[in-house]
Write a structure and sequence with these properties.
The complex is a heterodimer of chains A (about 230) and B (about 250).
Chain A: H1 2-5, H2 12-27, H3 31-52, H4 62-101, H5 104-111, H6 115-119, H7 121-153, H8 158-166, H9 172-197, H10 203-233
Helix pairs in contact in A: 2-7, 3-4, 3-7, 4-7, 4-8, 4-9, 4-10, 7-8, 7-9, 9-10
Chain B: E1 2-11, E2 14-24, E3 29-33, H1 40-48, E4 55-60, E5 63-64, H2 70-77, E6 80-83, H3 95-106, H4 111-124, H5 140-152, E7 158-162, H6 170-187, E8 190-195, H7 198-204, E9 207-212, E10 215-220, H8 222-226, H9 231-237, H10 241-250
Parallel strand pairs in B: 3-8, 3-9, 6-7, 7-8
Antiparallel strand pairs in B: 1-2, 1-4, 4-5, 9-10
Helix pairs in contact in B: 3-4, 3-5, 4-5, 5-6
Chain lengths: ~230, ~250
């Protein structure tokens, strides 16, 4: 399926249009949920960290440091990707599954259109392009919201938090997070597309494909997370 | 003209098509009829290349479709139009975009030329004012007509129609039948209709092929089918009360 999807497109202008439409559907329309989750998780991570390190021997800026590390290394790239696996993955699988059972994919094939290239490639390219932006926004909002809420809640001052988020900062961690994100984007879209494209049957099977897409892409995200962490951080 | 030569197809142990040979003639409406599960849909899917045959060959005007690579098949597929049972219109596109779709994918026409072609196809199916509507806003009959408009957008040489009248009222069914007849005659297309609707067969059928247990069990014209003494076909044709009344009137 992937080999066929990545074969030469029929008409580049059509594919460009498709990619832009998918960027809107996969990325822009996920902005709200990503922002909401990131703001709340950033705030919760800060408050929980403050609660757990309530000791005179640990400096207060550790709260900012811990929040930054948690959000950049794991929360934004992995947890947000898992959330997107649910939202985007089920959407892709149900869209392709419905197209399959209503013969729309057969209609494309009869016309001579490479259906995998036309339907799947734009989704993969769009996700690999837009996911890093979403994750970067998530990192920024999570860390910023953590500082604001921490300050308002009185658990850490903005100055201490700011010192913590700048303390021992290594830019490679951002690169590591974005590499993971691009891989997760590929995994989520390709696994979900596979389950949707090869749906057989009717409405019940479309539902099953959608569920399988979310389950298998989540498992693949977790597995690739382990492999990438081992490869990039050790 | 499409020639099907000795094609066989099996799914695991189940042999669905057994050495089928049939010719679909140009400018005629060629029917494939048969009971549900007889193999007529599999036969059609093999002919258009949605399923690969296990053996045999399909020739489109002498060109062996079965042994072509994807690129060569693409050229022939652009000469094929197909109307699916559920119309298979693209949900995310409106009527105009649906009909325009093959033109945008495979031609270098300007937007204006494409619009002109879309207008002419929609006028052909008597739906000129539906361009902005989406498939979910159309009735079953309208969806079939838009499906036909999309199928003829590329001026096909071959038209495949799968169960054109399923889910339609008798009057709309006749409209669709007549449309298929007109298009076939006007454009001199090789039309293949898969159906088990005897009204449709009698209305527009030129050549009828009866599929039974994975083989072409009978071939003939609509006049001959009414007088057939082939038992399985007789049971099929005269299964309904309406056809039995005709049989009694004809005294066959």
């Amino acid at each position: 399926m992937l080999a066929s999807a990545f074969s030469k497109p029929e008409k580049l202008s059509i594919y460009r249009k498709q990619i832009l439409a998918e960027i809107d559907k996969i990325g822009v329309q996920s902005m709200g949920i990503v922002a909401l989750l990131s703001i709340f998780m950033g705030a919760i991570i800060t408050i929980q960290t403050a609660y757990n390190i309530d000791s005179a021997f640990i400096p207060v800026y550790t709260i900012g440091f811990t929040a930054r590390q948690t959000i950049i290394l794991e929360f934004s790239p992995t947890i947000i990707s898992l959330i997107l696996a649910g939202k985007v993955g089920s959407n892709i699988a149900s869209e392709l599954g419905t197209m399959r059972v209503t013969e729309q994919i057969d209609a494309l094939e009869i016309m001579g259109v490479n259906s995998t290239g036309y339907l799947i490639l734009p989704k993969i390219v769009a996700a690999m392009f837009i996911f890093p932006f979403l994750i970067t926004i998530s990192m920024f909002l999570g860390i910023f919201a953590g500082g604001v809420i921490g300050d308002l809640a009185g658990v850490v001052s903005w100055a201490d938090y700011e010192y913590g988020i700048l303390y021992d900062f290594r830019p490679f961690q951002i690169i590591y997070a974005l590499i993971k994100t691009v891989v997760f984007a590929f995994v989520i879209t390709s696994v979900s597309s596979y389950h949707g494209y090869y749906t057989r049957g009717g409405a019940l099977e479309v539902g099953k494909s959608s569920t399988q897409a979310v389950v298998y892409s989540s498992i693949m995200v977790i597995l690739s997370n382990l492999v990438l962490t081992q490869l990039l951080l050790t | 003209m499409i020639e099907v030569r000795n094609i066989s197809k099996r799914f695991d142990q189940n042999e669905v098509l057994k050495d089928v040979s049939v010719t679909f003639e140009e400018g005629k409406i060629n029917f494939i009829i048969g009971r549900s599960g007889s193999g007529k849909s599999v036969l059609t899917k093999c002919v258009v290349g949605l399923l690969e045959v296990d053996s045999g060959e399909v020739l489109y005007h002498g060109r062996d479709f079965t042994h072509m690579d994807r690129k060569q098949r693409k050229e022939i597929r652009q000469e094929i139009g197909m109307l699916f049972q559920g119309s298979a219109l693209f949900d995310s596109l409106n009527v105009e975009e649906n009909v325009m779709f093959p033109l945008t994918m495979f031609t270098s026409l300007t937007r204006r030329e494409m619009m002109k072609r879309v207008d002419s196809c929609l006028e052909r199916v008597a739906l000129p004012h539906t361009k902005a509507l989406f498939p979910s806003e159309l009735s079953g009959g309208m969806m079939k007509r838009v499906g036909i408009a999309r199928a003829i957008a590329m001026n096909p040489k071959y038209l495949f129609v799968d169960e054109p009248n399923s889910g339609l009222d008798p009057q709309t069914a006749i409209v669709i039948d007549n449309l298929i007849k007109e298009i076939t005659t006007d454009y001199n297309i090789t039309t293949v209709v898969v159906s088990h609707d005897m009204n449709s067969v009698i209305e527009i059928g030129d050549h009828i092929n009866f599929v039974h247990e994975g083989a072409i069990a009978w071939k003939g014209t609509k006049e001959e089918i009414l007088k057939t003494d082939f038992p399985e076909l007789n049971d099929f044709v005269y299964a309904g009360q309406f056809m039995r009344i005709i049989k009694d009137k004809l005294g066959t």
